[in-house]
Every structure is written in C-alpha cells, then in structure tokens.
C-alpha cells in the first residue's frame, strides 16, 4: 500500500503541511517513519481520515481551498466496489465526495485501490478518474 508524506497528505486534504503535521502530532492521523526517519501516512489511514474530515466540515462548508480547475478534482480513493462487469470508485477531494461508475476492467487496469491518489475529471454528468 502506498504511503504519503505529510506534505503530500496536506495537498490531498487541502490544508497546509503545518496543519497536517499538527494533526499527526495530536494523534488525529497515525504516522510511521521510513528508514530515513521521514514521517509517512498509510494510504488507507489517509483515505479514512479524509472522509472524517469532510464529515466534520459538513456539506455547507464552501470556504475550503479546493476549486474546479478545468473540472479536475485531485483527491484520494476512499472506496472501490467491484461487480462482475461494472465498478464504483469513490474519491474524497477536500470537502467533495465524487463517485464514478466505470467498468471493472478499467479499475483493474488502472490498479485503483483505497488510499491511492487520483484525479476525478467531471464532464457534464460523467465523472472520469485518472490515475495520478
């Protein structure tokens, strides 16, 4: 499973690295250290924390730093549900939760899994997800 640095996690959560560091210091999000001593956050832990953070902010919170630049929403995959032919992928992009329905084959080819960084691109009523 992929791990993220404090800076990468901060970017995905839409906060400053100092804020992410304070959350880690306070025990809100679990970290571990790599061989060089750098603090890392497991992708699954980051995905779960991003959902919690969005729930705490509530749907009414529109003051966040996330904007739609050419309708691209960078975030972290929080759920992957595979069917026989179709699949559902959920991304938490700051306070935004995006859900895309795509083929199981596409999900498997792109290797989507919970905790992975991804970008949701929205066109009309369709959401396409690019591997970041």
Automatic annotation (TrEMBL):
Keywords: Molybdenum
InterPro entries per the UniProt record, alphabetical: DNA-bd_dom_put_sf (IPR009061), HTH_17 (IPR041657), Mo/tungstate-bd_C_term_dom (IPR008995), Mop_domain (IPR004606), SinI_DNA-bd (IPR010093), Transp-assoc_OB_typ1 (IPR005116)
Keyword Cell membrane applies: no
Domain called Mop: residue spans: 66-131
UniProt cross-references to Gene3D superfamilies, sorted A to Z: 1.10.1660.10, 2.40.50.100
Designated name of the protein: Helix-turn-helix transcriptional regulator
Native source species: Streptantibioticus parmotrematis
